[in-house]
Structure formats: C-alpha cells, structure tokens
Amino acid sequence: MVNINKSTLVTPPHYLHRGDKNTYQNILEGGLAGKELSVSRPPRLLLQLHALTDNPMSLTITEDITVSAALEASIPTVNTVLLEIVDTYNTEYTITVPAGVTVLKVQGDVYHESPEFVELEISNVANKKSWLYLWDYEGASGVSYVGVTPGKSYTIHSSTASDTGTESGYVTLIYSQSINNQTPNVTDY
Fold first, then answer.
1. What is the structure's pLDDT at 44?
2. Of 26, 42, 169, 172, which residue is 20 to 30 A from 4 by alpha carbon distance?
3. SS3 assignment, position 169
4. What is the C-alpha to C-alpha distance for residues 98 and 175, in angstroms, rounded to an integer?
5. pLDDT tens digit string along 40-95?
6. Which of these ranges, 6-15, 52-61, 143-152, has the smallest mean pLDDT?
C-alpha cells in the first residue's frame, strides 16, 4: 500500500534524462529515495492502469489517495515437474503445491517381465485418498488430474505390487497453466 499526497513528488524513471544511466541510481543512493519533497505547486501524478486485456487507462490524481495492489501468482505456461518418483516401491514424499496451482497432473507407469498382474498407487497419507491407481497385466500406465489447494503441503505415499515382487514404476507430478484448466477427476482440497 502506498500513500500519495499532494506534497509528494513522484519522479518515475521515464522522466529522467535519456543517456544518463546513473541519474536514477544517484537519486536512489543519494538519499532522496523515500523522502518527500515540498513544492510550491502540488505535482500531478499520472497513474496508468493496465487491465487484463492490455487496454491502458490513465487517471490524473489531484487529491490525496491510497493506492494498493494485489499480486497474482505466475504459473508457468510450460509443464513443470513438481516431483519425480523413480523408486515407487513403498515410499513417501512431502510436496508443497506452488501458489496459484489448483490442479496437478499425476502420471505414472509400472511394469515387470511377467504376464501376471502389476499395480501402482499414489495416495495422500493424511486421508488415504488415491490420486492415481493403475492395475493391469505385465504393465500399466495412466494419468489423473488432482484438484489441490495452493500453498498446502501433502505427504503422498507411492506403492507398487505384482505377483513376482520384481516390478518397477515411475511417477511424475506436473503443473502448468494448461493443467490448471483441466477438470480434476480426483479432488483433495
């Protein structure tokens, strides 16, 4: 939150002389940063707002106001790995969901060299909710989308099983803007 009053002089960097790279740095380091400068005529502050549509709007501030801003979490546009599990046999991991992320993509596969059954399960330790369950003969792979709470920590359990006990599996938890737009088939808020 920033309080701006009529006697505050605000000098944004684009008002400085071009070509003088040190001017703004000198203002900051020279003791003027954070100080109010009195002037005989109140300065005018031009406030430029950008909406989500990138349509700029301009306002001229002539009276005392309070300005505040809310920050929005930036979620990557590319798939980003939150957790990669290579040894899926009876292991636990604690993850913290990044700010702004509401859906995780959980993908996994499990296999062994026998034509008998094989299974893989990823579940939340706290409430035993299954995030991904795979079962088939010889090998299985699949994906689930899990609705989660941003900033929340989850301890997840990974387990595999087969008739021979020689199975191996692989699991990744991924997030991105496009994954956030998916409808979860598992919710664990």
1. 55
2. 26
3. strand
4. 9
5. 455 555 555 555 555 566 667 777 777 777 767 789 999 999 999 988 888 999 99
6. 6-15
